[in-house]
Design brief:
heterodimer, A: 226 residues, alpha+beta, Glutathione S-transferase Yfyf (Class Pi), Chain A, domain 2, 2 domains, four-stranded mixed beta sheet, 9 helices, globular, B: 223 residues, Glutaredoxin, 10 helices, 4 strands, 8% strand, Glutathione_S-Trfase (chain A), GST_C (chain A), transferase (chain A), glutathione transferase activity (chain A)
C-alpha cells in the first residue's frame, strides 16, 4: 500500500478536516505533529510556499491547502464519497466550503482577537454569514444531506473550535433561538462516528485561544500607543 | 442535462466573468449572456446570488451557481469536451492550488497596489511581484500551465496579463517584472493571443477608461 503521511498540529481545525476525511474513508496514514512555532525542515520542504499545515504526502508528493487536499483524497480513494454525484450538488458543496473559509472564519477570528468597535463589527459580519448557513441547512440533517459531506467537514470547526472561542470571549455567536438549525447541527455533527473520536482536547484549546486573544489585544494596545 | 439552457450573468469589465466566458467558449457551450449593471443590480441577479450579490452567476436549467472557480469545475464536470482539468488527481490538485493562489494571494496584492498610495503602494507592488514570481514556479518551462494547451490555471490567471498592465499604467507601480519573471511574462503574452481567449477580451481602451474611473473613485486622485 502506498505511503500516506499527514503533517498537522494538534489544534489546527484545517488539519482536522484531513484527519476526518482519511478516517471516514478508512485510509491508513502516519501522522507527523508539527510545532508551528518551530517548523520542521521537512514541513518547509513539503510546503515551501505557505509553510503551513496540513500537508498530505502521498507517494512522496506533497499536496497542500486543506480544501485542495480534500478533493485529492476524494478522487484518489473512492470509497465513502464526501461529494455527491450530481454536478450541481457538488458545486453547491464546494461553494459552502469556500464560503466558510472566506466569509465565516475571518469575522469569527476578528471577534476572538478584538474588543470594542472592531469586535462589534466582527459579530455583525459573522452573524450575516451564519444566517446563510442556517438557510442552507433547511430540511437537512447535515450540509451533505442525510450524511456528512464535504461542506460539513469544511465547516466542522464551527462545532468545536468556535465553541471554544465563545467561551474565551464570552460572546455567543450561534445562539439557539437565533440559529436553531445550526445549533442542532453543532450537536449532531460532533456526535457522528469518526468525528467524535478526533476532537483536539477542549481544555487545551481554551488555554491556547485565551492566550491568542490576550496577545492580540496587547498588540492592538501597543499599536494604538504609537 | 447538458441540453438545458445556460445563462451567464456577468459584467464586461469583470475578470471573474471572463474566466467563465473563456471556459464556455472553449467547451463550445451555447449560452445566453446577461450584462449586469452592478450599480443597479437586477432582481434576477439578487435572486440568483443572494449570498454574494456578485457576478458571475451561471444559471443552468434554472439552477444558479456562483463563484467563478466553482463554476469552472462545474462546467468541466458537466461538459466533457475540451477538459480544463487534467485526469490525474495529483495534477488536478496542483491546478486547484495555483488557481486558489491567484485568488488568495495574487489578486489581493494587485488590488492593494492599485488602491494604496505612497509607501503602502510600493510595499503592495513588491508583494504582488513576489506572488507572481511564485506563480511562475508553477509554470516552469511549459507553454501553458495546462501543458501543451490551456487549462484551469491559464483560465484562472490569464486576466492578470491584461489587468495588471492597466494597474501599472494607471497607478504607476510595477507588477509584472519582465526581468525577474521572464517565463511568466512570456506566458502572459502567449495566453492572451490564444484565439478563443483573445476574442472574448473586453475592448482595451474602454477597459482602461473604466479602470481609470474606478481609480479616481477609490483613491480620490488621478493617474
Amino acid at each position: 500500500m502506498a505511503e500516506v503521511k499527514l503533517f498537522r498540529s494538534w489544534s489546527s481545525s484545517f488539519a482536522l478536516r484531513i484527519v476526518w476525511a482519511l478516517k471516514l474513508k478508512g485510509v491508513p496514514y502516519d501522522t507527523i505533529f508539527e510545532d508551528l512555532s518551530s517548523k520542521s525542515s521537512l514541513l518547509l520542504q513539503y510546503n515551501p510556499i505557505h509553510k503551513k499545515v496540513p500537508v498530505l504526502v502521498h507517494n512522496g508528493k506533497s499536496i497542500v491547502e486543506s480544501l485542495v487536499i480534500l478533493e485529492y483524497i476524494e478522487e484518489t480513494w473512492k470509497q465513502n464519497p464526501l461529494l455527491p454525484e450530481d454536478p450541481h450538488d457538488r458545486a453547491t458543496a464546494r461553494f459552502w466550503a469556500q464560503f466558510g473559509d472566506d466569509k465565516v472564519f475571518p469575522p469569527v477570528l476578528d471577534v476572538l482577537r478584538n474588543e470594542g468597535k472592531e469586535q462589534e463589527e466582527g459579530i455583525v459580519k459573522a452573524k450575516e454569514s451564519l444566517k446563510y448557513l442556517e438557510e442552507e441547512l433547511k430540511g437537512k440533517k447535515f450540509f451533505g444531506g442525510e450524511k456528512i459531506g464535504f461542506a460539513d467537514i469544511a465547516l466542522g470547526w464551527l462545532a468545536h473550535h468556535e465553541n471554544v472561542f465563545e467561551e474565551v470571549t464570552g460572546i455567543t455567536l450561534i445562539a439557539e433561538d437565533e440559529f436553531p438549525l445550526l445549533s442542532e447541527w453543532r450537536k449532531t455533527f460532533p456526535d457522528a462516528p469518526v468525528i467524535k473520536e478526533n476532537w483536539p482536547p477542549r481544555d487545551k484549546l481554551v488555554t491556547k485561544f485565551q492566550a491568542i486573544r490576550e496577545q492580540a489585544l496587547v498588540q492592538k494596545l501597543k499599536m494604538a500607543e504609537k | 442535462m447538458s441540453g438545458e439552457t445556460v445563462e451567464l450573468l456577468g459584467h464586461w469589465a469583470s475578470p471573474s466573468a471572463l474566466r467563465v466566458k473563456w471556459t464556455l467558449k472553449l467547451k463550445e457551450i451555447e449560452y445566453e449572456y446577461v450584462e449586469e449593471d452592478l450599480a443597479n443590480k437586477s432582481p434576477l441577479h439578487l435572486e440568483y446570488n443572494p449570498v454574494h450579490k456578485k457576478i458571475p452567476v451561471l444559471v443552468h436549467g434554472g439552477k444558479p451557481l456562483a463563484e467563478s472557480l466553482v463554476i469552472l469545475e462545474y462546467l468541466d464536470e458537466t461538459w466533457k469536451r475540451n477538459p480544463i482539468l487534467p485526469d490525474d488527481p495529483y495534477e488536478r490538485a496542483q491546478a486547484r492550488f495555483w488557481a486558489r493562489f491567484v485568488d488568495d494571494k495574487c489578486a489581493p496584492s494587485i488590488l492593494s497596489a492599485f488602491t494604496k498610495k505612497g509607501e503602502e503602494k510600493e510595499k503592495a507592488g513588491k508583494e504582488a511581484r513576489e506572488n507572481l514570481k511564485i506563480l511562475e514556479s508553477g509554470l516552469g518551462k511549459k507553454q501553458f500551465f495546462g501543458g501543451e494547451s490551456i487549462g484551469f490555471v491559464d483560465i484562472a490567471a490569464g486576466w492578470i496579463g491584461l489587468w495588471a498592465r492597466m494597474v501599472e499604467e494607471i497607478a504607476d507601480v510595477n507588477i509584472i517584472d519582465t526581468e525577474t519573471m521572464p517565463l511568466l511574462d512570456a506566458w502572459f503574452r502567449r495566453v492572451l493571443q490564444v484565439p478563443i481567449l483573445k476574442e472574448c477580451l473586453p475592448p482595451q481602451d474602454r477597459l482602461l477608461e473604466h479602470n481609470k474611473g474606478f481609480y479616481k473613485n477609490l483613491t480620490g486622485g488621478s493617474s
